[in-house]
Design brief:
Layout lengths: L7 E4 L14 H17 L4 H6 L2 E2 L2 E8 L8 E11 L3 E10 L5 E10 L1 E2 L7 H4 L1 H10 L8
Antiparallel strand pairs: 1-4, 2-7, 3-6, 4-5, 5-6
């Protein structure tokens, strides 16, 4: 298993800004999702593979702390980390940094559970051991910011 991951990089788009010329607060949650999808793809268990197994992972909660505004055309790197995982729930934390200065722009986390197609909670440890082992191996992995 390749244990070297790169952060998710994106540039703020004009349509994401508000009347003050900064990225509207609602877009940070979308950026968290983009970074989460990218992270899961990179570790080999993207949403397409998870859903092919009959599993969904809905968001239970979102927290976002805004530190410094991001403006149009500024480039940021988003660093997700699988902070907590027990096979039933997981928490992913995110740090949004200015790509040029490294300044912290925002941070937050999302909490998820695992359910089947009937919306019943599932235990990956019990029912999907291969997915459980993969996620467990990436818990607390820190992505290189350089």
């Amino acid at each position: 298993m390749d244990r070297k991951l790169t952060p998710y990089v994106r540039r703020a788009q004009f349509y994401e800004t508000d009347q003050m010329g900064v990225v509207h607060h609602s877009n940070y949650v979308r950026w968290f999702e983009e970074a989460r999808v990218d992270f899961l793809d990179k570790i080999g268990m993207g949403y397409d593979k998870i859903e092919a197994e009959g599993i969904h992972s809905p968001v239970l909660s979102v927290v976002c702390r805004y530190r410094q505004p991001v403006r149009f055309n500024e480039k940021v790197i988003i660093i997700p980390r699988l902070k907590f995982f027990n096979g039933i729930k997981m928490t992913i934390s995110y740090r949004i940094l200015d790509a040029d200065t490294g300044m912290l722009r925002s941070e937050g986390e999302t909490q998820h559970c695992f359910i089947n197609r009937d919306f019943k909670m599932v235990s990956l440890k019990k029912d999907y051991k291969h997915i459980y082992e993969l996620f467990k191996a990436w818990t607390d992995y820190v992505i290189d910011e350089s």
